[in-house]
Amino acid sequence: CKFHPGMRGTITVEGVVGGVAPVETRFEQPLVVPATRRGADIRLVMRRAKVRALADGPRTTMWTYDGTYPGPTIRRRGGRGTEVTVVNRLPRGAGAMSTHLHGDHHAPADDGQPTTHLIRRGDERTYRYPLLVDGRPEPGSFFWYHDHRMDRTARNNWRGLQGMFIVTDPPTRGLRLPTGRRDVPLMVSERSFTPGNQLTDPFADGPDMTGHHGEMSWTGEHAPPDDATVGDTVLVNGRHAPYLEVSATRHRLRLLNSSPFSSYNFTLSDGRPFLQIGTGSGLLPRAVVRSSVLLGPSQRADVVVDFSGASGQRLVLASVPAAPGTTGDDARETAVMEFRVGAPAPDASRLPSRLPSPRLVAPVPAQVSRTWTFGLEETARHGSAWTIDGRAFDPRRVDHRVRLGTVERWRLRNDSEVTHYVHIHAQQWRTLLRDGERPPPWERGLEDTWRLEPGEEVEVAARFTDYTGPFMIHCHMLDHEDHGMMARFDVVP
Ligand code: C2O
Ligand code: CU
């Protein structure tokens, strides 16, 4: 186990990793918080739009939800059913799309299946999200929505089809988290730009993506194992190197890494810690003090930062790789954004040491266990492919059948030589073991995506509730997902 020893206490401080931000970055643009939608009936039009990503020069043309990148942030209380209608008005050549609400629990017909339920150009589709789990309101969560079109997910997300979805916490006595302007969702995602400020096209010479069932193929540099869509410019809520003016009080930051491929090891330039209160899928049982927070593609962390005592300072949120040979040494090294700390202000927030976290499934009655092995194989059909259990994705093939109502224990094993971030649709999971040991304190809440280093094994458990039909498990490094590392499991009555 590569985590620091002595991590078993209730509140633990990691050793400080790395140093200060590697900065010559100038923070010239104010952070933009995407518009919020709160209704039960939401309409999002996918269309091309010009957005302000870089501080100087022309705006950037992106594929957007409703004209902005990120799209509007949807905020809904758990249990309040929500319908989201997505309309495809993208240009010719973009093809059919599929919108997935990452992390949420809903029926397969509304799951943004990557292969079926496509929204063709000119068409629309309504997704129904009851925000219920087994009849109870879904816990406060930080989800996000993004395109999930088979074979083209990396390209479509690169072009911009991403937005955030917050399930707000039910009112809880004793817990007063920072709210309003002190509750800031931060979508961190990297891109590369041409001298004219347009997105580069890393896919130009890439896969020949026919999009037909099981007919994927890919060639050249963008074939496994050399497929890695990385950018050189980090955007936060769609803008490069933004700053945010904050009062010298506690702020809740909801961090999301929506990059196609890279991971980030977030730190603050003065060594100020993050108090992590949740994952993307609900509160942790106890807050954890962390000097850095590592997030791979699609992972989220709900943290509180206390800016008191920093009035007049400018603090940089940066990603700093961990020490060589330790977890997170492959993270990006980059400045991300700046906090300009103003005067102190009244602060009514309160954080009890025990948090009202969602109930976890009891692992003991796990009725079924199964293993999923993530690897790289030569396949007869596609040549070199990222695989699960030795096979590249085929949407017509049911890889596992899971019985509704059953508690399952899944072993996720990385047999390849690179790190993967494994995501499971359908349910939220409890992490039982990481490499045979109790997981670190920040992995003791619900999760839907796990980091798996080469040779690592993570065991997770969930009860399958409410819905039957096909769901997906895949690597969330989008090149790996597009190039075979996805499987289908069906929940059956
Ligand atoms: Cu965020 Cu299957 O996806
Ligand atoms: Cu992967």
From TrEMBL:
Q: What are the protein's UniProt keywords?
A: Copper, Metal-binding, Oxidoreductase
**Which first-to-last residue range defines the signal peptide?**
none
Question: Residue ranges of the Plastocyanin-like domain?
Answer: 54-170, 380-492
Question: What protein family does this chain belong to?
Answer: Belongs to the multicopper oxidase family.
Listed name of the protein = Multicopper oxidase with three cupredoxin domains (Includes cell division protein FtsP and spore coat protein CotA)
